[in-house]
Amino acid sequence: MKIWVDITAPAHVLVFRPLIQLLRERGDEIEVTAREYAQTVQLLELHGIEAELIGRHGGRSRLGKLGTMATRMTGLRRWARGRHFEAALAHGSHHLTLTARSLGIPSSTTFDYEFATLQHQLGCRAATVVVVPEAIPPERLERYGVRPPKLRRYPGLKEEYYLADFEPARSALDALPLDPERVLVTVRTPPDVSLYHRKSNRLFPQVLNHLGREENVQAVVLPRTDEQRDFVRALELPSVIVPEQAVDAQSLIAFSDLVVSAGGTMNREAAALGVPVYTTYGGRLGGVDEALIREGRLRPLTDPRALELVKRDGDGGRVRRDPSLMLELLLPV
User: Fold this and answer.
1) What is the pLDDT of residues 256-270, one digit of tens each?
2) What residues contact residue 29 under an 8 Å CB cut-off, 6+ apart?
């Protein structure tokens, strides 16, 4: 088959890496488009995935997002027309599903947070197939026009699939000035530019200030944007490290003693790798996070003093799942 994959955020590179490999191993022809946003391009290069760059993120404002969406969809349509794709795959890219539908290409989209309302109203209705974790109650998706057979569900976390073949590389830590005697904490900043996270995350600066002044801690902060990077560095917290470039975040997580994240992907990567993880997410919790909290694999944080800043002993129960199952569900034809 000839298949189109669209990647619009850094995490999507990781999701599609093993799927693209499986498709090429079975003889399919794959072409990839991508949007310039955060570390997306750096991660594409890191994983050896060639992509046609079309468009960029629209920033915080709804007007900016609508403007760049229209521009990008025009670019995608111009690029895809005449290439005779038989299927199109995306992770939450309504740009792809809307464009694919206008060109008569069967498409699928996957996501694991169900309350990004505007995005899903557009993307799910245009898609041929919608693939989500079993942890999301099906009735929450009905408002987006998603019901069986359009709805397909998979067990576990998507991170358990794309990290199935992952083995952490200690060399990923070499570029960081780390002291192995201190507690290593990986910290992910809030998704400030996401429409579903419009309220300020007031807890996160408190967490940063707490960790940044603990003498037995080294907190590696992974910002999403240059603005966030500048903000964290300006605080001049003695126990905080901000990498200059995109890092092998999964290896960093695997060797961390704990993770504190205001987003979603890094929470779930830590859970999949068996690393203790706290969430400071300020929006409405989705079904996946609700399930992880019930299982004790994710800890909601309301006070930085509740963080257990201790060295980790062994792994906490890593889970691996076969990515071929995810691929089978995603293929819309």
Assistant:
1) 999 999 878 899 999
2) 1, 2, 3
